[in-house]
Amino acid sequence: MFNRRLVLILIIVASFVISLFFFFRNDTRYTKVTYQFYNELSGDLVNESRYILWEESDKRMSIKIVDELFLGPISVFNKKLAPFDISYNSFYVRNKIAYIDLPIEFVTNFNDKEYAIDEIVDIIKSNIKHNIKKINQVILTINGHLIGIGVDNMEFPQELDDNK
């Protein structure tokens, strides 16, 4: 009787130890990202959090974050940042600056009268800056042409600034 009980306890403890080993051996890690989208009903900015699979490479992680952003919101009450079925042409990061090239359809198929494209561009920039910590600036282009060029939106390098 005593031996049976001891064997049963040993089997339970061994099963527990083995299951703990496999539980902690699991290398699947996720990271939480938070995106902002416009709410369809109120017009306010709302936050949506997601868990995406962690990548060791900063480049692949950045691409995943931008891919998720262009997939759009999870909630049906939030507006997509880009027209349906439109993503970005290219994305890369260099010297803490993110460069995103959007297709021309981003502008031509954008038919939302409530929000200007400038607001959507600002939301894209703030989402990328918020979720990719190493980025200080985001530059958006449409088919290689800069968006929002003007005195207010340009930042000159120190050596090119004549207004000292």
Describe the model:
- The protein is an alpha+beta fold.
- The protein has one domain: Alpha-Beta Plaits.
- Helix content is 35%, strand content 23%.
- It is built from four helices and six strands.
- It has a four-stranded mixed beta sheet with strand order 3-4-5-6. Strands 1-2 form a two-stranded antiparallel ribbon.
- A hairpin with a 2-residue loop joins strand 3 (90-94) and strand 4 (97-102).
- The longest helix is centred in the first third of the chain and has 24 residues, at 2-25.
- The radius of gyration is 24 Å and the shape is elongated.
- The termini are far apart.
- The model is unreliable at 149-164 (pLDDT under 50).
Which fold name corresponds to the CATH topology?
Answer: Alpha-Beta Plaits
Number of helices: 4
Q: What share of the residues lie within helices?
A: 25-40%
Distance between the termini: 92 Å
Indicate the mean pLDDT. Answer: 83
**Beta strand count:** 6
**For the report, how would you describe the main beta sheet?**
4 strands, mixed
Q: What percentage of amino acids are in beta strands?
A: 15-25%
Strand order of the largest sheet: 3-4-5-6
Q: What are the segments in which pLDDT stays under 50 over at least 5 consecutive residues?
A: 149-164
- The rounded Rg comes to 24 Å
**CATH hierarchy class name:** Alpha Beta
CATH architecture: 2-Layer Sandwich
Shape: elongated
Q: What is the element string, with H for helices and E for strands?
A: HEEHEEHHEE
How many separate domains?
1
Structural class: alpha+beta
